[in-house]
Amino acid sequence: MFEASLIASLLSGAVVGLVLGLIGGGGSILAVPLLVYVVGMDDPHAAIGTSAFAVAVSAAFNLVFHARAGTVKWRCALVFAAFGVVGAALGSTLGKITEGQLLLTLFGLIMIAVGAAMLRRQAGGEDAEVKLTRDSAARLLPRLGASGTLVGALSGFFGIGGGFLVVPGLIAATAMPLLNSIGSSLVAVTAFGATTAANYALAGWVDWPVAGLFIAGGFAGGLLGAWLARVLGGRRNALKYLFSAVVIGFGLFIAIRGALVLFA
């Protein structure tokens, strides 16, 4: 039984890493359902806490590459993350006291929203030179604060990286280009995941061995996904649409199954 759980944790992490490497954001939304339905975690809270830690480590790893490439708008990213950490702390605290099956049902609904969002073509802003300075603070700070707090709260409540929300949130607040918003979003995703994981860890809801295996599998899957992305080239959009359909379908299954249990 132990070996089966070990292999399931590695393979589940590899699936998430593969998707992230192949088509980019959205893959981490699979972490919680994989931990519940494949690895076999009985408690949705433990799955969320473990997922949050794995997502934070993965985001931090990818942030290094974006930082080296110079795509991170550090001041905007750090302010967004700082406000978001407060939201993540509040959201994860609310998640901890939410009944497990209800939490899982709501997670199914958020999966449907993520899948639908992936079908939309993402566009960036036009201000490539945007910076948070003394002159721009009056304009940017309220937007970054409001957007960061809201996204952080949702990320903390569901235990997801929230990159699919952070990227448009940063663009809406600053009008930075898409590439910069993707790089900058990883600062927030790392911070939100770490905050949520720490909150859940205080309640004993992080399975550290499973998290380690999940991260190891994700690293290997990410390398394979990045290689496949180069090989497949133009077919990536088709794969993205297919994956969004899978996410929506999985979300419907989780939401309907949870609703049947709740109202039985």
Automatic annotation (TrEMBL):
It comes from Marinicauda salina. It comes from the Bacteria. Its main location: membrane. GO terms for cellular component: plasma membrane. This is Probable membrane transporter protein. The keyword Metal-binding does not apply. Keywords: Cell membrane, Membrane, Transmembrane, Transmembrane helix. Belongs to the 4-toluene sulfonate uptake permease (TSUP) (TC 2.A.102) family. The chain crosses the membrane at residues 6-39, 46-65, 77-95, 102-119, 150-171, 178-202, 208-229, 241-263. It is found in: Cell membrane; Membrane. It is a multi-pass membrane protein. InterPro entries: TM_pro_TauE-like, TSUP/Inactive_protease-like.
